[in-house]
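Shipment paperwork, digital attachment
Item: protein structure file
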Amino acid sequence: MMLRLRNLLADWCLAALRDPRGSALLRALAAFTERADETGRAEGMTTDQAALLDSTDCFESNGGAVLLAPHLLRDLPALRARAPLLLAATAQSRARCGGPAARGSSASWSLCATEALFNAGLFFEVHELLEGYWRRATGDLKTLLQGLIQVAVGLHHQAEGNVRGALTRLCVGNEKLRGLRPAAQGIDLESLCRAVERIVTRLRATPGAPVEVPRLVVRQPFSEITR
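Attachment content:
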């Protein structure tokens, strides 16, 4: 997926996580991918949805239809796969975690939201969500956030076919998380670290082989998570 489009989707995702009004763009995207033909043209969208997409430089309205920019047409299959994941994961996060203001700790909200993104396979979005919190964190929380970011980046590289980059990030991130086991800030690190180790072993033995993506489990009550 082209960098501009990938970053745009991540921005829409984070906006939807933080404010339910931000979900409108993701709903418009999902409506577009459901209706778009192989030329990237979608008919029958609402006026509001068309206007939202037209406000970006990736789409344009034309004669009542919405068109994907020609240089992004090759990304249409990825958009079709990603749009429902983004919509479902942000809805799940909003239902379970609320917005940032709903938690007494910004760390608690970010980790709660991370669980939904990670388990949907939205690893680039995990990186984008946690990076700002990591920069402000200190101590073990900073180590935890950095480890999670690096594991997510490694899994993103693996999904993109960059085995070397995947192995580097998975190993570095898992090393940080292993030092915090069995759990930290409500996250079941024992299970996560074992799963990442299995992925590393498999990729080293058979580069490019499919892997079983681990699940991120947050068990601790959010009120107990420190800033």
